[in-house]
Structures are given as C-alpha cells and as structure tokens.
TrEMBL record, chain A:
GO terms for biological process: phosphate ion transmembrane transport. It comes from the Bacteria. One of its GO terms (cellular component) is plasma membrane. Keywords: Cell membrane, Membrane, Transmembrane, Transmembrane helix, Transport. InterPro entries: MetI-like, MetI-like_sf, Phosphate_PstA. The keyword Transmembrane helix applies. This is Phosphate transport system permease protein PstA. Residues 83-288 form the ABC transmembrane type-1 domain.
Amino acid sequence: MSAAVGEDLLAADAGGGRDQLRARQRRATAVSWVFLAAVVFAVVVLLVLLVAVAYRGVPSLSWSLLSSKASRNAESAGLQTALFGTLWVISLTAIIALPVGIGAAIYLEEYAPRNWWTRALQTNIANLAGVPSVVYGLLGLGIFANFFGFGRSIITGALTMALLILPVIIIASQEAIRAVPLSLRQGAYALGATPWQVSRHHVLPVAMPGILTGTILALSRAIGETAPLLVAGAAAYLTYNPDSLTDGFTALPIQIYNWTDRPQQEFKDLAAAGIIILLVVLIGMNAGAIYLRHRFSKKTRW
Amino acid sequence: MAMVKRVTRVMTPLALVLALLAAAMGPAMVARAQDGTPAANVAPYEAPENIGDLEGSITSDGSSTVGPITEAVAEEFSGLAENVEVSVDISGTGGGFERFCAGETDLQNASRPIAEDEIAACAEAGVEWFELEVAFDGLTIVVNEENDFLTCISTESLAAIWAPDSDITTFDQVNPEFPAEEIALYGPGTDSGTYDYFVETILGEDEAGETIDSRTDYTASEDDNVLVEGVGGDENGLGYFGFAYYTENEDSLNAVEVAQSADLSDCVAPSLETVRDGTYAPLSRPLYVYVTAESMERPEVQEFMRFYIANAGALSLDVGFVDAPAEDYAAAQAKVEAAISGEAEPDSATAGA
C-alpha cells in the first residue's frame, strides 16, 4: 500500500528526480552488499584458520602439554617453560607499563599546558604506536640487554614489551580520560579540590573501565608478539623454568615457531596445539577485560 | 634413549655390582647408537657421583640444524644435573658465531666449519675455542614424487643448474631425454649454513678466491618445511635441504642420487650408511659444536661436553641426523678430556694460520 503511494508520489514528481532516487537507492543497496561481503570475508578467513588449527591441534591437546618441558620426543614434549616465560614477561610488562602509561595519560590530559611542546609530545606518541615491533626489539637489545647489561633475560623482554605497548596504553587512557564529562571536574574544582584530588577521586574512577580495556587489549597484543622477543633475546630452548628477573626465558609464540621448524610431522601438530593454548590465554585476557570493565562501570555513580 | 639415562642414573649412586651391570649395558647402547656398526672405541658416559651438585648455566646459540641435537643433549643432561641450566638459542650459524666470538655464549652450534672472518673476530676478542664434530648430515637433492626421470644427477649438472649466470630453465637442458618442462627451483636462503655448504661444495670459488653465490631466481626460505611443501606440491620442483626433512616426507618427495662423474657412473643415494661413511660425496657434511676454552674451565661445561660427545651419536639419530663415524667420536672424546686436563692447545691457536 505504502509502496503504491510512494510510486504515485514519485510519478507526480518530475521524471528526472525519480530516476535519481532509483539510482541512489541502487547505490545504497550495492554498498550494503559490499560491506556485508567485507564482514563475511573477515569472518570466513578467521573461521577457516581456527578450524584448520583446531583440526590439527585438538588431538595433541593434553595436560602433559602444559606440565612438561620441551623435548625432542613429540609425545612427551610440552610448553611449560614457554608458558612460564610468557606469564613472567607479560605480568612484568603490565606492572611496568600500567603506571607509566596511565601517569603519562593523566599528565597529558589534566596537567599539560596546551602549547607546542605538548602537541609535539602527542604527535610523537601517536607515531611511536605505529613503529614496527621488531624495531622495539632492536632497541631493547641495544639498551636493556647490552647497555644496561641485563643480558638476554626476562627483565629485558618485559622492558622491551612495555616500551612496545606504552604508546597504545597512553592513547587509550587519554581517550578514556577525555570522555569524562568536564562538569565533573568543574564541580570538584569549585569545591576547592587540587588537580591531583580531582584526578584521583573523580576522573580516574570514571575513566578506569576504558583504561583497563585499552591496557588489556595492548597486553593481548604483546602476548602474541614474536619479533621483538626473538631480537631482544628469548631462547629457543631452556632446560629450566625461569624463576628470577635475570633468568633467560622463552615464550609461547617462540616455542610454536620452533616446533613448526622441525622436520617431524608430530611437531607441527604440537605447534597447532600450542596455538590453541595461546588463543585460550588471549581469550582469557580479553574476557578479563570485559569483566573488569563491567565491574568498574557499575561502580560509577554520577 | 631412555636407556642412556637409566644407565647413567643407575651408576651414580650404586656400588660395584650395578656398575658392572651398567658397564655391560654400556657397549650395547653404543652399538645401537652406531646403527649396527661396531663402535667399541666410543666410551659410554659415566656420570661422576657429584653430578647432582653441579651448578651454573650454559648458553648456546647458532645453527637451526644443530640446535635440535644440542637441545636433545641438554634435555637428557638436565635429567642428571638438575641444577645446571642450559639454554639454546637459534640465530643461524653466522649470527651465532657473532655472539660466540664476542664471548657472549659458551657453546656455538655450527652447520659448517668456522669461517676466516669469524676466526679473526674470535682472535681479536681473545676468545679461544675448541672445535668438536658431533654428527653428520646429508644435503639431499629432492624432486617431486611424480618426477620419475631425474633419478641421478651429477655434481656438474647441479653446478650448471645453480650457477649465478645459469640459463637452464627446463629439464631437457639438463638431459635431452628429459621432458621440456620448466624447473621450479627451491633452496635455503643465503643466511643458512646449508646454503653456504651447498654453494661452496657445488659451485666452489671464483678466481679471486671468493665463494660463488648461487643464482637468485629460486624460491628461497630459511624454513625447510616451506621447501618441503614447495617441492612436494610442485611436479617440476627441484630443491635441496637436510636429510631429516627428506626422510620425514618420503611420501611426497623423491631423493635424487648424486654422482661425482659427469657420465653418472657412480650414483649414490643418500642414506644413513652413505652419509656416515662419506660415500655420499660431496654433499655429506659434518656438523660441529664449538666451545670456548674459557668455558671449558668450568666444571658444569666440562661435564656437559663429556656427556654431549658420548651421546651425540644416538641423540643425533633420534632427531633425524646421521651419527658421525665412531672413530670421530673417539677423537672428540680424547680432545674433550685433553681440554679438561688443560693439556690441549685450543683449536683456535692453529686455525687460520
């Protein structure tokens, strides 16, 4: 019915306008199909990858994969050493990068004067976020491993990773802080609060969900990084689990890479199983991010 | 291999009766290691009583080919000396030597002998070293399983195919009887010790004494599995890589016999026997471990090297390589013992002179 009315109206319109409308509608439909194709393409590629990995890796999944160390026998090989290394490096990365990153964001948003110096800092941070990760690896090797003499150790790996994700954390935290309504700050300042009190008691709690989401996504990225760790000194094989900051370490992506390089077929299946473990750790971290975000959002009272 | 562990473990705490039993088992183990060939002159490893008290960390770097052997040795050794931490990095033979000659690592895994410039770098940094042969590998020329005409190739033809200015693009240019199909070449990248060994052996040196680089219009990868996939999936594929990667993929690949004479009268197929006894010439190559003289003064490194040489044969077979001849291991054992007692002059003293 309505379509018929539309037709009548269109018919009443000048002929040229009607053709134009049809053309625009066709274009709109075409574009929506293009976007749908983009989504389907992305999801299908991801699914194919996941199914391929699951198909090869699931049969090799077992507790011994987590509980035993690397071995030349595929049946008894595990990635405990690599899992420990990854957990050490990532926790330490979080401990280093979180305070520094959030501190930098608070400074830039709440304290820094709006002048050319701040703008220069801002531009540099944005640029650093785009530097290839292997460059950070070389930096870590040069500065932490050689200049500071930390060697090829966990602390070198963690500091390198922290540098790598700092720009991302700073930018994400800034966005979150910027999203806090100005009225909240003005209210606090009106009551005589110092800038620190405003940040500590009013801005940070409200911005926390956003900051945490950004941070955990950055850490999730760091967990899958291979290049900077390879360069900054992760070992391919260790007989021991690291238990101090200056110990050598290996990490999950490196263990996976090492396995794919072996001639024996069973090691390639193990590599697929390793990828599943890495994915589980990643999904776990992302789930943690969602949970924390939810918790902090509920706390917010206006 | 569980046996090695058991033998040595049993010996450590117990008295004479068990020691005798273990001694009786020892030669049996070594015989297995040598794949049937008698090998009476490689002494089995005897762990000292205090091996559990050894402490320290041993670092190694180098070839991705030799790395797995050192990993296997480290794995077994850590079962005996629990407080010795061993790490194995894989930066390639060249990258590993850079760290080794800077004194950063104790051990260097090498799929070729140390080069002139590396000898100089070590000397400059004052790093003295011992060279130990630990296993053999046969560079295997492979074609797709569908390829039934290329069964033997002369080193001369190999050189013609891989020469930098080679104009060979089809199989019938190698032999007019072959089909006129285009050859798809696969090989390791130039950072690989495998590449170095192949071009040095097959292409040799130019008049100026420089090693000739191979042609560059081939599919190169540092990851041998990529080459396996490449030749295995390409009917006209032709490539070369380590023996282990062929034996693990025999269903998709054929190994090509190699002849040293142009008339193909002396074709030899790569196998455990022909690689070990060197009849698979010239592509059978020794694999090495280098250790610094300074590190050899530390008790944990001394014990590790004793263990390494005594078990290198069995463990290299385990990870897909070929064990060296028994007399080579015996010689390496003698060298290790002499290095420990301080009688031996480091190999660096006579190298490059």
